[in-house]
């Protein structure tokens, strides 16, 4: 079971969150900002966070609490290895870079 870091910026406080997601994750998730606790409703498909928002009326598969240590004000600079891994992951998902 592979895990990978997801990156998103909180629309409420603007901090960057880096939760670890598993490739088997599928469904409607609530991702909670590690800084301000703002809840982001996102649909995750095969461990990849989509741009789709799901409504609160739908059943929530799971709640993801982003740890404070996985949250920071400035955008994280990816290391060379991490960049390569992300590129390979994007290619394996059928998407370009
Ligand atoms: Zn926030």
Q: What secondary-structure arrangement, pairings included, does this model have?
A:
Layout: E1 3-5, E2 8-9, E3 16-17, E4 20-22, E5 27-32, E6 39-45, E7 48-49, E8 62-65, E9 71-72, H1 80-92
Please give a handful of descriptors for the protein shown.
alpha+beta; 1 helix; three-stranded antiparallel beta sheet; 97 residues; binds zinc ion; globular
Count of discrete alpha- or pi-helical segments spanning 4 or more residues: 1
> What would you call the shape?
globular
Estimate the strand proportion: 25-35%
Gyration radius, in Å: 13 Å
Helical content band: 10-25%
Query: What order do the SSEs take from the amino end to the carboxyl end, as H and E?
Result: EEEEEEEEEH
Biggest sheet architecture:
4 strands, mixed
Task: Characterize the structure shown.
There is one protein chain. This protein is of the alpha+beta class. The protein has one domain. It has a 4-stranded mixed β-sheet, with no helix packed on it. It has a 3-stranded antiparallel β-sheet with strand order 2-3-9, with no helix packed on it. Strands 1-4 form a two-stranded antiparallel ribbon. Strand 2 and strand 3 form a beta hairpin. The longest helix has 13 residues. The radius of gyration is 13 Å and the shape is globular. The mean pLDDT is 87. Zinc ion binds next to loops.
Question: Would you summarize the structure shown here?
Answer:
With 97 residues, the protein is an alpha+beta fold. Helix content is 13%, strand content 32%.
């Amino acid at each position: 079971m592979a895990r990978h870091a997801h990156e998103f910026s909180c629309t409420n406080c603007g901090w960057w969150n880096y939760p670890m997601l598993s490739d088997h994750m599928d469904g409607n998730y609530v991702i909670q900002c590690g800084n301000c606790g703002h809840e982001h409703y996102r649909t995750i498909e095969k461990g990849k966070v989509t741009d789709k928002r799901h409504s609160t009326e739908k059943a929530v598969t799971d709640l993801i609490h982003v740890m404070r240590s996985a949250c920071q004000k400035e955008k994280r600079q990816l290391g060379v290895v991490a960049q390569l891994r992300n590129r390979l992951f994007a290619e394996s998902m059928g998407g370009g870079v």
